[in-house]
Amino acid sequence: MTPGQASRIYKTLDGGETWLPGGDAPAHCDVRDLFVDPSAPDVVYASGIVLAPSVGCLFRSEDGGAHWASLTVGTGVTHVVSLARDAQDLGRLVVATNSGVWESRSAPDRIFDDRR
Questions:
Q1: Which residues are paired to 58 by β-bridges?
Q2: Which of 7, 61, 90, 100 has the smallest CB count inside 10 Å?
Q3: CA triplet 47, 51, 57: central angle to 5 degrees?
Q4: Count of CA atoms in the C-beta half-sphere (13 A) of 100
């Protein structure tokens, strides 16, 4: 990767034998961590270091990485160090950043419903 450019994300469907482009990576983000929701494998979170001011660097995709939505617009977060989903509350994502620990909540929906 060239410094100052957004990352590229690849995915595998066969346990790592072959790799395919995973769609456009989140804009303005040097991705350092990916988290796949174990109960909904098409839900992917990407986090890392921001490349453009006031953008943030935590994104969520509901289609396996083809499209991304920012979860940090306007928060001032420039580095996301790690992220994890709360096993006791599946709608809660805990995010460690350069400016503290943040919580992202999603309304209960099909994505976080493990009973399907």
A1: 47
A2: 100
A3: 25
A4: 4
Beta bridge pairs of residue 35: 45
Question: pLDDT tens, 20-47?
Answer: 887 777 777 888 888 888 778 888 888 8
pTM score, two decimals? 0.74
The residue whose two tokens read 């410094």 is 3
Type of residue found at 79: H
SS (H, E, C) 36-95: ECCCCCCCEEEEEEECCCCCCCEEEECCCCCCCEECCCCCCCCEEEEEEECCCCCCEEEE
Q: What is the pLDDT of residues 46-74, one digit of tens each?
A: 888 887 765 567 888 888 888 888 876 55
CA 56, CA 91: separation in Å to the nearest integer?
A: 20
